[in-house]
Amino acid sequence: MLPIAVYVFSLALLAFPLIGHAEVESATPALKQLDLTHHWAGYFSLVVMVAAYIAAMFEDITELRKSKPMLLAAALIWFVIVLTYQQQGNDLLAITAFKSNLQSYIELLLFIMVSMTYLNAMEDMRIFDALKVWLVSKHLSYRQLFWITGLMVFFISSVVNGLTAGLLMGAVVVAVGKNSPRFVSLACINIVIATNAGGSFSPLGGISTLFVWQHGMLGFFEFFKLFVPCLVNFSIPALAMHFALPKDKPAVDTEQVKLPRGAKRIIFLFAVTISLAVGFDMTLHLPAAAGMMAGLSLLQFFYFYLTKTTNSSSSKQLGLDLFTGPDVHDISIPESGKGSFDVFEKVGRLEWDTLLFFYGAMMGIGGLGYIGYLDAISHILYGQLSPTLANILIGLSSAFVDNGTLMFAVLTMHPDIPQGQWLLLTLTLGVGGSLLAIGSAPGIGLMGQAKGQYTFSSHMKWCPVILLGYFAAIGVHFLVNAGSF
Description:
Elements: H1 19-27, H2 40-57, H3 59-62, H4 67-88, H5 91-124, H6 127-136, H7 142-156, H8 162-176, H9 181-198, H10 207-214, H11 227-242, H12 263-282, H13 288-309, H14 343-348, H15 352-371, H16 373-384, H17 387-397, H18 403-413, H19 419-431, H20 441-449, H21 456-460, H22 463-480
Helix pairs in contact: 1-5, 2-4, 2-15, 4-5, 4-15, 5-12, 5-13, 5-15, 6-8, 7-8, 7-9, 7-11, 8-9, 8-20, 9-11, 10-18, 11-22, 12-13, 15-18, 16-18, 17-19, 18-19, 19-22
């Protein structure tokens, strides 16, 4: 529900929060983890976390940034936990638990930092503008644009964060549909569904998928088993909306975008960086964040090269389009400010409010898990209910609650479920946010971008067919991935 503007798409390497606890307990068997679920510290922590999340949900109304209540909640929760353990004389356990959760967050932060830095660099190079102009210049019909934008964002969101991918395609449909509000509304709904579906079959597609990958629940290539179910989830609502689209062609004015020198090479370096992250994890068993940081160094050296070889005093600016020829010596970039060759300027433009919100969410949920509440919930969901029903219900709840937060909570529960169920959970949490316009960051972003044309109520009208796609994807998953259960 809360906008998550981090990339690419999006993106963590988490260690199990209780591994550190087990190590301490084995080394010092006299120390035991306390059950605080019926202790004042547990009740206090639960109330604080719920209040903080409610405050974050009403950020647009209160104008209080969502990170503030979550940071305070995390601090208060761990304060009372450590204080309670100190009174029992075994605060070492609680301190170790806190450090384990902190390490998890640091790895998340580094991964996202590099990913979003590359996206900011590509934005400054006008790569996304060039793609938008290229699409608009094709003079396609409304129905053709509907399918092309949907399919493109379906694949782009597998490597780029959902908000960026959604807004990119949203800019296209708003530009070509200025005379057709119906097209803009339906195309935005299609983009939201396609973005969430595309981000679910790739470990790089969002925070929830990377949580599962970096916890070791699924291997990197195992996520691609969800490609067909995700495609079905996108296709069913799209087919239904296709017949409601205008049949004519839009009349649009096109512009020309010139790519600066080095733009295509930054795309190549981003691909190398993603490869390093995957390679470090699969071959060296190092955190994926280590590979991302190595990729960041490549961008820094490349910027150094551009700085030394760019003639800033030249007023002549030459350029080529995205899909033609090399981008050599065409545009000089300013030495400072937006569009500069300064990596730290790109880092400074990250969505820090969201990153700090996730610190509070991860540390707060980790605290509730250490208290014992998540184990109790796990016993109900995965003990009294079947794993399939539990995963379907959790996926439906992602229409109201951020899927990254839900996935981290489930991982902290440590449910003993087979690979097929982890794939099911990844699928339902990824596509469940499409049920409502406020269920995912792309939906919230597009409501602002296409204000008055794409609204909560216009999305809600198509909720039944979106729900049909949700359950159809689940059915296809059980059919094509039966061997994973």
